[in-house]
Design brief:
Length: 247
């Protein structure tokens, strides 16, 4: 296990409404980067305000800090976070096969959704929420139609990891990828993410709420947008929900 990153604080709670809500409460008095881990959440949420269920034993944490940079750069942290999650999981498993990254912010295991990431930026503060199905996962009927089936680390691999132990893997991994981002910018992060990208070069569908575009997933551009080659041309999509076509 890597050492806990220098200058980074940690708060662990038996129960919270949500780590993202606690991050918002702590933001005005934040002294430095801080991880918030909750063993139980009573009002967790995911992207677009969706409910996020946290069965006992699963992982829910938020990293909050003041990055002091342009909003566009903050959004690229979803790629940093995904790479850190993948690395922490690879370390826990001792291997990386079966793991892949789904644009914009999911980690997959054996084709199912294992983890999700949520970014919120307010004023000078950036909060990144991490949810990982360590022990249990929602039933397929509980997720949006067409979405990938949820999976858990325990059910898929037989590996039991506690939330506290996983945080001790994730925090150093994030610090290392963040250092790369700060030193070299987005290009090496983008390249590393694409190396792990699910369905790259294959057909996918991006839904933005009002529109739906189906095409070939060509790449992620220099701003982190999804690039789809569709029948009517090439589309650069900054935000959407992505659905996979049948193989």
């Amino acid at each position: 296990m890597a050492d806990w990153p220098s200058g980074v604080d940690k708060h662990v709670y038996p129960t919270l409404d949500s780590t993202m809500a606690e991050a918002a409460r702590l933001a005005p008095d934040l002294a430095g980067p801080t991880w918030l881990l909750a063993h139980e959440q009573t009002a967790a949420r995911g992207r677009r305000g969706r409910d996020w269920k946290q069965p006992k034993g699963n992982f829910a944490a938020t990293l909050i800090w003041h990055p002091g940079e342009a909003l566009a750069n903050r959004a690229l942290r979803s790629f940093v976070a995904a790479l850190a999650l993948a690395e922490a999981l690879e370390t826990a498993l001792g291997r990386g096969d079966g793991l892949s990254l789904k644009w914009p912010n999911d980690v997959l295991l054996n084709g199912g959704k294992l983890a999700g990431i949520l970014l919120e930026s307010t004023g000078e503060t950036l909060a990144i929420g991490f949810g990982v199905n360590l022990t249990d996962a929602p039933e397929p009927a509980e997720v949006e139609e067409g979405a990938l089936p949820p999976v858990s680390l325990l059910r898929e691999t037989g590996l039991a990891v506690t939330a506290d132990a996983f945080l001790n893997l994730l925090a150093p991994a994030f610090a290392a990828w963040e250092a790369r981002f700060q030193t070299y910018g987005f290009p090496p992060i983008r390249s590393a993410w694409l190396d792990r990208a699910a369905r790259l070069g294959q057909g996918i569908t991006a839904r933005t709420g009002r529109t739906e575009i189906t095409g070939i997933f060509e790449t992620v551009d220099e701003q982190g947008a999804l690039v789809l080659k569709a029948a009517d041309g090439r589309h650069h999509i900054a935000a959407a929900d992505v659905f996979f076509q049948s193989a």
